[in-house]
Design goal:
single chain; 5 helices; mainly alpha; 128 residues; 0% strand; globular
Length: 128
Amino acid sequence: MNKITINSTSLRELNGAIILASLMWSLMMILGDEIIHSFGRMAFGLLPIVPVAIFGTALIRHLKRTGHPAQKNMPSHVGIATALTVIFVTQLSKLEGAGFAQISAMAAYTCFVMVLCFSIGARRLLSK
């Protein structure tokens, strides 16, 4: 089995994006009522998109550094995944109730990953 190596700059960027996502999720749970009161429910619902976009950018930059063959298609995959996640989150942000911050953030990250995997898998299947 081959050892997996990653550029140290890419490692820092990807780890930073993951840490930012966990920090934003924690802040949404702690300061949810204050954010909703100050900025509104829609702004609160769209907060999980920020770390998703930053992680997508870090992923694209990593693939450009490595010269991976998938680098030419990755921006379109990340764009599609981010757009569908925004649509999903805007619809989900209309919901109210206990644990909304937790549900919306985890649902946004899960939606992004699922759409990204589906998009990459679909392109591979169609290219064969």
